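[Q] Does anyone have a clean structure-token version of this?
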Amino acid sequence: MPLSQESLNELVTAVARFVKERLVPLENEVAEKDKVPDDVIDEMKEMGLFGMSIPEEYGGLGLTVEEEVTVAFELGRTSPVFRSVLGTNNGIGSQGIIMFGTEDQKRRYLPGLASGDIIGSFALTEPEAGSDAGSCRTTARRTPKGYVLNGTKRFITNAPKAGVFTVFARTDEQVPGPRGLSAFLVPGGTPGIEIGKPDKKMGQHGTYVSDVIFNDVLVEENALLGGVEGQGFKAAMQVLDRGRLHISAVCVGVAERLIADSVRYASQRKQFNQPIIEFELIQAMLADSYAEALAGRSMVLETARKRDRKPDVNMDAAACKMFCSEMVGRVADRAVQVYGGAGYIADYGIERFYRDVRLFRLYEGTTQIQQIVIARALKRGEGLR
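[A] Here you go.
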């Protein structure tokens, strides 16, 4: 059930204040130390931010998609690192359980995910499978005691802290492509799981990504998501739709933050005895950025509302992810240009955002994958007026 407008406004206001007063002042420290402080994470838990998309009956806030993206706009107005801490619990780490899990699986994991006591992780990508999920080589062999998992997953967000992995593995090696894939809920720390050393990244320092290796990992039959083999690919695709809308909203929030910073800097920085915001070419860059961010906000809200009415928004979610992730990259580039030499210097923070936003065009489906999703839907006659 949607929140009342008053309750939603109160939540958005509280998140906006938290971002401005607590998170923004910590951006440089988190980037330098490569760690989000524990007390900040505790505050996120108290605000219920780990369970925004999880139903109330399992301890979450139960936000609609429209409500969730409205909050994500605010979370985007600071370093993406903070959002990443709670992002998997609201998206790919929990949605598979919500959509496809058995009641026992929901009651076992969702309350902990909602409270933040359990961190969820989505283990799909492999050294030779990511965008091509059907090429997944991790296997799940059925035995009298359960399933035995073997394989390597790569670039797995929050893996070092994961309390539960949603692992995609091939249960039927005789069935090629995605139809042979199943999904499993594997508790972190299960014997045989090896977590690789956290990868060194271009940006988003403070988030953790690493390989996860499964060496004869035995899980009980009830670890099979939904208790049904062969629905792993379907689960992955439907989970990604909501996740892509969330990421799109964060991209919009980051763009709006960068625009505000650029306007502020351009109003103060003087050249030729006047603020540079008086120069028309600076104004043009700011105007282009504003128009693109407005377009992104509008399409995300429209698609979120459509998602709340019906589950199948695959094409439009892909369009949002494609546009917004590319858009924020252009806005960040213009921000560096407006700041000039200062934009290239770490002290101002703009170069950090420039690096941070580059990831948005890669994870939860690259821009090129979104283009393919959209084009295939158009070939089927979808989206045509």
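[Q] Thanks! Anything notable?
[A] The radius of gyration is 21 Å.
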